[in-house]
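Researcher: Final request for today, and then I'll write up notes for the group meeting. The sequence and the SMILES for 2-acetamido-2-deoxy-beta-D-glucopyranose follow.
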Amino acid sequence: MVPGKAKARVFALFFLFLLISCSEGKECTNSPTQLSSHTFRYGLLSSGNDTWKSEMFAHYHEDDHLIPTDDSAWASLLPRKVLREEEEFNWAMEYRKMKKNVQSSSAGSFLKEVSLHNVRLDPSSLYGRAQQTNLEYLLMLDVDNLVWSFRKNAGFATPGTPYGGWEAADVELRGHFVAMMYASTHNETLKEKMSAVVSALSKCQDKIGSGYLSAFPSEFFDRFEAVQPVWAPYYTIHKIMAGLFDQYIFADNAQALKMVTWMADYFYGRVQNVITKYTIERHFRSLNEETGGMNDILYKLYSVTGNSKHLLLAHLFDKPCFLGLLAIQADDISGFHANTHIPIVIGAQMRYELTGDTLYKVIYSFVDCPI
Ligand SMILES: *[C@@H]1O[C@H](CO)[C@@H](O)[C@H](O)[C@H]1NC(C)=O
Ligand SMILES: *[C@@H]1O[C@H](CO)[C@@H](O)[C@H](O)[C@H]1NC(C)=O
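Model: Predicted protein-2-acetamido-2-deoxy-beta-D-glucopyranose complex:
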């Protein structure tokens, strides 16, 4: 390669990098574009109107973003800047940095939760009838149809037909469902059905072999990590993880705990990769796309496994550009997409309850009070 040319390229890329960091440094959410609404995004993606799509996705500056391959080429051109090999990213250090100034004590006594197994609704009440309707709906769902996209994604044969709506095979958000119904009804027909879903999903996870489990390909996460347009893949992953975790908590399914732990390990590897190859800012910037309650489920998982990796990963989903505003009790937190940000606050509360980290009490109380 001609050295002068290489130098010019390094400079151009570096300039581009500065430009991107300056223009997007303060971005904290994918609103105000209407893309935050799943209904809107569904309409957009299924419209076939490319003009409209490119208008709506313009804020990603598609041409400016480095694709993962370009990005690593850039990183190896600037080895001293980002990737000092002698200073391999130190996770224990990163964790201590995040914990700095945190007074870690037991959070204190909270109201004691009554097990769902011990609560029954009066069947003639409005709530009892609503629960019965929901139970009957869940029982109508067919296992093969429900796991159709998961099997397809794992390369298995796909008996049945995929459901439509959010579960349609061409919807990027496909593959999310959760369950607590069993604990409050002890309906054994439902239990058999849930167990069949968990074991079908387990086979898919084994076949893929990395811990990844989803109804869409892991390539969606390449786009997420490259800050390219993609439809909230962690939002869906959170639902799957929370559903599996609940299968363990409410239905004693030990297999489901193994599965959700393996998923956490997989995503730990992905986030670690983003931070070591690029920067932690890049990881935090990717969180502008909706991530559901990833922090919440990882805190809950940590409460069962006691694995500090799960705690660290949970912290890494505590979206700082949003929780920071709550921590300083900023005057104006309007304009944030509720479905994206309320789950993050719930996760912040879980952090306080588990770790006694008082800053997080300040954070969630600030949201609790005005509402
Ligand atoms: C496509 O979207 C553009 C921009 O929103 C709009 O002006 C145009 O009317 C749309 N075309 C069709 C065929 O709906
Ligand atoms: C589960 O609930 C459905 C709907 O109410 C009912 O038909 C079925 O008999 C129940 N199964 C068991 C094992 O009780």
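Model: Residues 135-136, 139, 187-189 surround 2-acetamido-2-deoxy-beta-D-glucopyranose (ligand 2) (CB under 6 Å). The chain is about 60% helix and 0% strand.
Researcher: Thanks, that's everything.
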